[in-house]
Design a protein that fits this description.
By secondary structure, this protein is an alpha+beta fold. The chain has helices at about 5-10, 25-35, 40-60, 140-150, 155-160, 165-175, 175-180; strands at about 1-5, 20, 65-70, 95, 110, 120-125, 125-130, 135. The strands form three sheets. A three-stranded antiparallel β-sheet has the order 1-3-2, with no helix packed on it.
């Protein structure tokens, strides 16, 4: 999971194995780590990563991209440095049952960290200003993370023989696990609060 444009929030925090800002060489090395887990993936992901690394290394483009190695946090992603209140995106929301907002139903405003009190404008394609919401639900989070985010679970997509099969399994099986577990605004179809 790559966080684009997150330097303002996460740039001053520590770099951990969970959340890194490695530059292109570090990201390539991380991809090689993923490639080394399954020989079947080499033709799909690793060849592309190698070509992209050579392209970036030969260019004048110097940038970093943060990424979250969620396989380190699969047992309880809510305790990940990504959701740390000082160096991450803040914690859970506090549910408000009286809030009739259909985008945040079952979730509440993020209470701590750099996004506490942050206002978003859109909900399911409709302008509907509200606070950024989350709802870490233990049974939903546990189900999603234990069955879809561990290294063992990633075999579901790493073993695919074509790019289309790989991408489809990654998107459906693993990519959706975090939004379905964080819920609130992150679980909406127009996250992060964009207009369709």
């Amino acid at each position: 999971m790559i966080f684009r444009g997150s330097t303002a929030i996460l740039g001053s925090g520590p770099t951990t194995p969970h959340l890194s800002c490695p530059g292109i060489d570090g990201f390539y090395n991380y991809t090689k780590k993923l490639c080394g887990k399954s020989a079947d993936t080499r033709g799909i992901l690793c060849e592309s990563a190698s070509q992209n690394h050579e392209l970036y290394a030969a260019s004048d483009i110097h940038h970093t991209s943060r990424y979250w190695d969620w396989t380190l946090d699969w047992e309880d992603f809510t305790k990940s440095p990504v959701f740390d209140i000082h160096h991450g995106f803040g914690g859970d929301g506090a549910a408000d049952p009286s809030d009739g907002n259909n985008c945040t139903t079952g979730a509440g405003c993020v209470q701590d960290g750099p996004l506490a009190g942050y206002k978003v404008q859109w909900c399911n394609g409709i302008e509907q200003p509200h606070c950024l919401s989350r709802n870490f639900t233990s049974e939903v989070s546990s189900l999603a993370t234990s069955t879809r985010l561990s290294w063992a679970a990633t075999d579901e997509f790493r073993g695919k023989s074509t790019y289309n099969d790989f991408n489809r399994a990654l998107q459906i099986y693993t990519h959706n696990a975090i939004p379905q577990s964080v819920r609130g605004d992150f679980g909406s179809l127009d996250a992060p609060s964009g207009k369709r």
